[in-house]
Hints:
Blueprint: H1 3-12, H2 18-25, H3 29-43, H4 45-54, H5 69-99
Helix pairs in contact: 1-3, 2-3, 4-5
Amino acid sequence: MTIKEKIVEEYLAGGTSQRKLAAKYGFGNTSIHRWVMEYERNFGSKAAILKELTSPVMDLEDKKENIPDDVALLRKELEEERLRNKLLTAMIEVAEEELKIPIRKKYGTKPLKK
Protein backbone atom coordinates (compact mmCIF):
# COMPACT_ATOMS: atom_id res chain seq x y z
CA MET A 1 0.00 0.00 0.00
CA THR A 2 1.42 3.37 -0.98
CA ILE A 3 1.50 6.37 1.35
CA LYS A 4 -1.13 7.99 -0.85
CA GLU A 5 -3.53 5.05 -0.38
CA LYS A 6 -2.80 4.97 3.36
CA ILE A 7 -3.68 8.66 3.71
CA VAL A 8 -6.89 8.31 1.68
CA GLU A 9 -8.01 5.29 3.70
CA GLU A 10 -7.20 7.06 6.96
CA TYR A 11 -9.32 10.00 5.86
CA LEU A 12 -12.20 7.78 4.73
CA ALA A 13 -12.06 5.89 8.02
CA GLY A 14 -13.10 9.15 9.67
CA GLY A 15 -11.97 10.82 12.82
CA THR A 16 -9.53 13.21 11.17
CA SER A 17 -9.65 16.01 8.65
CA GLN A 18 -7.71 16.47 5.44
CA ARG A 19 -5.84 19.40 6.99
CA LYS A 20 -4.72 17.31 9.98
CA LEU A 21 -3.56 14.55 7.65
CA ALA A 22 -1.68 17.10 5.54
CA ALA A 23 0.14 18.35 8.62
CA LYS A 24 0.80 14.81 9.88
CA TYR A 25 2.30 13.50 6.63
CA GLY A 26 3.76 16.72 5.24
CA PHE A 27 1.61 17.01 2.11
CA GLY A 28 -0.60 19.88 0.98
CA ASN A 29 -4.25 19.60 1.92
CA THR A 30 -5.23 20.27 -1.70
CA SER A 31 -3.18 17.24 -2.76
CA ILE A 32 -4.97 15.08 -0.22
CA HIS A 33 -8.32 16.48 -1.33
CA ARG A 34 -7.46 15.64 -4.95
CA TRP A 35 -6.43 12.09 -3.96
CA VAL A 36 -9.68 11.55 -2.07
CA MET A 37 -11.74 12.86 -4.99
CA GLU A 38 -9.80 10.62 -7.40
CA TYR A 39 -10.39 7.61 -5.15
CA GLU A 40 -14.10 8.35 -4.89
CA ARG A 41 -14.33 8.87 -8.65
CA ASN A 42 -12.62 5.51 -9.29
CA PHE A 43 -14.39 3.48 -6.63
CA GLY A 44 -17.62 5.46 -6.31
CA SER A 45 -20.15 3.98 -3.96
CA LYS A 46 -17.63 1.77 -2.18
CA ALA A 47 -15.83 4.88 -0.93
CA ALA A 48 -19.11 6.36 0.29
CA ILE A 49 -20.06 3.11 1.98
CA LEU A 50 -16.65 2.86 3.63
CA LYS A 51 -16.86 6.42 4.87
CA GLU A 52 -20.38 5.90 6.23
CA LEU A 53 -19.52 2.65 7.95
CA THR A 54 -16.39 3.89 9.58
CA SER A 55 -17.72 7.23 10.70
CA PRO A 56 -17.42 7.59 14.46
CA VAL A 57 -20.34 6.23 16.44
CA MET A 58 -21.53 7.71 19.70
CA ASP A 59 -18.77 7.21 22.27
CA LEU A 60 -20.39 6.82 25.67
CA GLU A 61 -17.14 7.29 27.56
CA ASP A 62 -16.74 10.80 26.13
CA LYS A 63 -20.15 11.83 27.39
CA LYS A 64 -20.14 13.13 30.93
CA GLU A 65 -23.71 12.19 31.71
CA ASN A 66 -24.76 10.61 34.97
CA ILE A 67 -26.77 7.72 33.63
CA PRO A 68 -27.29 4.32 35.22
CA ASP A 69 -24.99 1.52 34.09
CA ASP A 70 -27.82 -0.51 32.59
CA VAL A 71 -28.93 2.40 30.41
CA ALA A 72 -25.33 2.99 29.28
CA LEU A 73 -25.02 -0.70 28.42
CA LEU A 74 -28.26 -0.63 26.43
CA ARG A 75 -27.13 2.48 24.54
CA LYS A 76 -23.85 0.81 23.67
CA GLU A 77 -25.63 -2.33 22.46
CA LEU A 78 -28.03 -0.20 20.40
CA GLU A 79 -25.15 1.61 18.71
CA GLU A 80 -23.42 -1.71 17.97
CA GLU A 81 -26.60 -3.09 16.39
CA ARG A 82 -27.07 0.07 14.33
CA LEU A 83 -23.51 -0.29 13.05
CA ARG A 84 -24.10 -4.00 12.33
CA ASN A 85 -27.26 -3.09 10.40
CA LYS A 86 -25.35 -0.52 8.32
CA LEU A 87 -22.65 -3.08 7.63
CA LEU A 88 -25.11 -5.71 6.46
CA THR A 89 -26.95 -3.18 4.28
CA ALA A 90 -23.66 -2.12 2.73
CA MET A 91 -22.69 -5.73 2.08
CA ILE A 92 -25.99 -6.34 0.29
CA GLU A 93 -25.56 -3.18 -1.81
CA VAL A 94 -22.03 -4.14 -2.82
CA ALA A 95 -23.09 -7.71 -3.65
CA GLU A 96 -26.04 -6.48 -5.75
CA GLU A 97 -23.77 -4.06 -7.58
CA GLU A 98 -20.99 -6.55 -8.26
CA LEU A 99 -23.14 -9.61 -9.02
CA LYS A 100 -25.81 -7.64 -10.91
CA ILE A 101 -28.63 -9.58 -9.23
CA PRO A 102 -31.37 -8.37 -6.90
CA ILE A 103 -30.92 -9.77 -3.40
CA ARG A 104 -33.51 -7.82 -1.43
CA LYS A 105 -37.09 -9.02 -1.31
CA LYS A 106 -39.45 -6.87 -3.31
CA TYR A 107 -42.34 -5.90 -1.11
CA GLY A 108 -45.84 -6.12 -2.48
CA THR A 109 -45.15 -8.96 -4.87
CA LYS A 110 -47.73 -11.69 -5.03
CA PRO A 111 -46.72 -15.23 -4.09
CA LEU A 112 -46.57 -17.79 -6.87
CA LYS A 113 -49.59 -20.09 -7.22
CA LYS A 114 -48.83 -23.78 -7.34
